[in-house]
Amino acid sequence: MKILGVETGGGGRDARRKPGTLSDLVERNAALRDVFAGDAALQSRLLTLQRWQSRRLLRSHDDLHRSPRYRLAVEFFFGELYGAGDARWRDRDLMRVQRVMERLLPTEALRALCLAVELELLSQQLDAEVTRALAPGPITVETYADAYRAAGRRPDRERQIGLLDQIGSYLDRVIRKPIIRGLVRLARGPAHAAGFGKMQDFLEHGLDAFQSMHGADEFLKTIRAREWRSMERVFSGVEDPFEFGAAARRGTGG
Fold first, then answer.
1. Mean pLDDT of the chain, nearest integer
2. What's the start-to-end Cα distance of the chain, in Å?
């Protein structure tokens, strides 16, 4: 279907049942929220791990966060897209409006949203594996790296980094088309009135973050290169895999 000449929607009823569609991803993602149901200790440990990882990401990209050009993008990527903690509100909103979104969202915006849910789904799976492998006690770079290696799943780690890049590329293309941004913003009033304003705000924050960069290529290239290097160093078992010591010596480690 087209609205104002812009292709929207992800297909008909049969398409919504296929793996990888928004409906499929949302349902699988929501089910993973309770991966440690019945084990309060592991659930608490998981949330502690996710907070630790969010702080690690912000520390690794502190220079980008301090840049007025990239600040909003860093906060969106590592605060809302990843690091939002228990985002059950997003699951609830998506479960309620997924069919409407599949029909009415511009195709590129819908694809970005599907990739965002896929990233969260994959991240939840990996976080659960690392949580199971974590040694008791406070989480440190050393204990985190040990658990990361024990969990393995390198192809999924590579996919995780690739998804960040793909999501950013889609969002960057969306904001270059004012009519698409306009269609997303037209949904603001109805979305809030219908009770899923947080989901709408999440989408708009992503668009605002990329609009503020005036071009995301450098940002995405930097994130991809740094996270790939960190992954390589963790799997290789090198000391200081995130290079916090080197950054501190340069006076940029925070």
1. 78
2. 50
